[in-house]
């Protein structure tokens, strides 16, 4: 029986949630863990898949140090159950869950063994929550696609918004059709959280032709920050505590959202099973239709524009985008590249610059010009232009035939002054003419 067939016989499937976010350190693990603990506290059976490859992972946040991870299961050294860590309120954690990606490199029999075990495991829970690693690596992208609900964590930091935007753009390109939820972490208050969401949402409407679901905000909270250091998650505090309360609100929001989404017939393991089965043509699965270099380039520029518009105050981002783009344009420095760069510079609205900025820029441009092609020096012999002078032409009209002139020169005494020499040559010329 395949994983898919075994799914058909199950009455129960967990609700699956991926906690994700393009940027590191936005609070994915804190959110995933506290949400998982809150649901467990509400007597739900919850499995937390720790897909974070970083050190700041779930198990460390609760002070548990895994002896075995999914990697050991892959290697056939133990069963999936042996990796389970149990923490407060009976929450179960699978460490090293990002290793599930390696199923794709295993033999069909081996990967089926692992995925069947995962399928059986997840059917015992009400919720399976995945904490993904930051970035656009394949395991994280698959974990988002595998879950019913993708909760993208962002912060008011513009860099987190641009990274989240890139992440969503990538998953959309890979065929993701659901509406991601946005959770604004580390917000100063409700209005800031809402406006951060709206900025991201309007950028997505403009550039991706899609809209997001607003999952709410989690406040910037010193207690939460300390809880990570003390390895005592805020979800363990009394329910009346504001830090803990926030996650009750989040759990409610998640449940409302899940109730709006059709429940999947199959869980995470079945998703991976499909991916594994299509491994041979994985390149084609979920990836965009082939597009021309021109379209890809225009899309990329559109994306860059969106990212820069999202973060108008982020000078570092503009600096990085500018230098990398120019390095690309000038990678092949032929006459086309020079013209492209010239045209680009020419189209800048320099007149809008203040006097001081203009002078500053002009000084830089002069310096740059000197580096590219230094001005010719006064000494004509050391000038590179000298080398390009035409071959000297013998002036026959002034000096007569060359061999006659040579003879006259040889006849002159060695100690003759330049003056006498010129006079004698002139006399010689006259005598010849
Ligand atoms: N709401 C918050 N208020 C204050 N500090 C927070 C908040 N959320 C997270 N933090 C702090 O931010 C840091 C990063 O959090 P966390 O490890 O959860 O992020 P992450 O997105 O999982 O990071 P990584 O990408 O490295 O996995 C931690 O020190 C955590 O305590
Ligand atoms: Mg993390």
UniProtKB/TrEMBL annotation:
Keyword Nucleotide-binding in record: yes
InterPro entries assigned: AAA+_ATPase, AAA_dom, P-loop_NTPase, ParA/MinD_ATPase
GO MF term (any one): ATP hydrolysis activity
UniProt KW keywords: ATP-binding, Nucleotide-binding
Cellular compartments per GO CC: cytoplasmic side of plasma membrane; cytosol
Signal peptide limits: none
Domain of life: Bacteria
GO BP, one annotated term: negative regulation of cell division
AAA+ ATPase domain boundaries: 13-175
Membrane-crossing segments per the record: none
Protein name in UniProt: ATPase
Organism: Marinobacter salinus
């Amino acid at each position: 029986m395949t994983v898919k067939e075994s799914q058909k016989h199950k009455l129960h499937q967990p609700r699956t949630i991926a906690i994700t976010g393009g940027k590191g350190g936005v609070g994915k693990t804190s959110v995933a863990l506290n949400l998982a603990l809150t649901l467990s506290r509400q007597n739900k059976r919850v499995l937390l898949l720790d897909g974070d490859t970083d050190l700041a992972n779930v198990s460390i946040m609760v002070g548990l140090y895994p002896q075995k991870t999914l990697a050991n299961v892959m290697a056939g050294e133990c069963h999936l159950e042996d990796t389970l860590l149990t923490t407060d309120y009976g929450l179960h954690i699978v460490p090293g869950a990002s290793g599930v990606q390696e199923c794709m490199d295993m033999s069909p029999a081996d990967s089926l063994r692992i995925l069947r075990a995962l399928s059986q495991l997840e059917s015992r829970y009400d919720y399976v929550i995945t904490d993904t690693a930051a970035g656009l690596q394949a395991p994280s992208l698959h974990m988002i696609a595998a879950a019913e609900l993708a909760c993208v964590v962002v912060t008011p930091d513009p860099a987190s918004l641009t990274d989240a935007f890139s992440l969503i753009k990538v998953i959309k390109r890979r065929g993701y059709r659901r509406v991601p939820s946005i959770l604004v972490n580390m917000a100063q208050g409700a209005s800031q959280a809402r406006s951060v969401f709206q900025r991201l949402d309007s950028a997505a409407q403009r550039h991706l032709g899609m809209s997001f679901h607003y999952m709410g905000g989690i406040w910037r909270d010193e207690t939460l920050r300390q809880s990570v250091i003390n390895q005592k998650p805020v979800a363990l505090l009394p329910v009346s505590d504001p830090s803990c309360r926030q996650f009750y609100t989040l759990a409610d929001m998640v449940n409302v959202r899940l109730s709006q989404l059709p429940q999947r017939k199959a869980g995470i393991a079945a998703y991976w099973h499909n991916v594994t089965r299509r491994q041979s043509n994985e390149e084609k699965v979920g990836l965009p239709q082939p597009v021309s270099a021109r379209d890809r380039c225009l899309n990329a520029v559109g994306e860059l524009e969106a990212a820069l518009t999202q973060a108008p105050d982020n000078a570092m981002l503009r600096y990085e985008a500018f230098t990398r783009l120019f390095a690309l344009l000038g990678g092949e420095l032929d006459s086309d590249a020079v013209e492209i760069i010239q045209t680009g510079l020419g189209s800048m609205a320099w007149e809008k610059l203040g006097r001081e900025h203009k002078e500053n820029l002009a000084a830089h441009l002069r310096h740059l010009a000197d580096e590219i092609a230094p001005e010719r020096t006064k000494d004509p012999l050391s000038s590179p232009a000298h080398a390009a002078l035409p071959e000297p032409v013998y002036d026959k009209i002034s000096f007569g035939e060359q061999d006659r002139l040579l003879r006259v020169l040889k006849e002159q005494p060695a100690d003759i002054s330049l003056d006498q020499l010129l006079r004698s040559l002139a006399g010689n010329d006259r005598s010849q003419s």
